[in-house]
Design a protein that fits this description.
Length: 177
């Protein structure tokens, strides 16, 4: 019970900080998440509501990274396993209750006009440019949705993902196997 209360408090604080960052536009630029073995940054303007883990309804004959559809606050969303999509293979799904407790579904902003939620393993928080000590532009042959990579003071690498560009990629939109 205490874990649920702590989780709700964390989600409330994060939602408040997201709203404050969107209205002030000063402190944070990205939502920092972990998916698989990597760290990612989603631009705040591209990310929508964050939902706790909900088991999606399986859809047959789809790519392994497309987990199915889920009813999120009355809307039907396709659920994409981010780590599986980025690596091209289905990552092992979380099976323990503790892993599901940390997993989140990050919906794309409704302005992107794609009812999709990305399954991530863990929310890390909000990050601004000042949280990083170095940045590197993507390679010339990198996908259009791949942004800069950043390094924080601890040496961890964070990859920016342009969710708007990702949501328009034919591979992302073609879920049929």
């Amino acid at each position: 019970m205490a874990n649920r209360d702590a989780l709700r408090a964390f989600q409330s604080r994060l939602a408040g900080r997201l709203q404050a960052a969107r209205t002030s536009g000063v402190s944070a630029s990205w939502l920092a998440v972990e998916a698989g073995d990597a760290n990612y940054l989603f631009p705040l303007g591209h990310a929508g509501e964050i939902f706790p883990w909900v088991q999606p309804q399986h859809v047959p004959y789809t790519e392994p990274w497309f987990l199915g559809v889920a009813n999120l606050r009355g809307g039907l969303y396709g659920v994409v396993q981010l780590a599986g999509f980025l690596t091209g293979a289905q990552a092992a799904p979380a099976t323990s209750e503790a892993a599901h407790a940390q997993s989140r579904l990050v919906a794309l902003n409704e302005l992107l006009e794609v009812n999709c939620a990305l399954l991530i393993d863990r929310l890390v928080g909000l990050r601004g440019v000042d949280a990083f000590v170095a940045s590197e532009a993507p390679d010339a042959d990198a996908p259009a949705w791949l942004g800069h990579s950043y390094t924080d003071s601890a040496g961890a690498r964070w990859q920016e993902i342009n969710l708007q560009a990702l949501s328009q990629q034919p591979r992302f939109l073609s879920i049929g196997a």
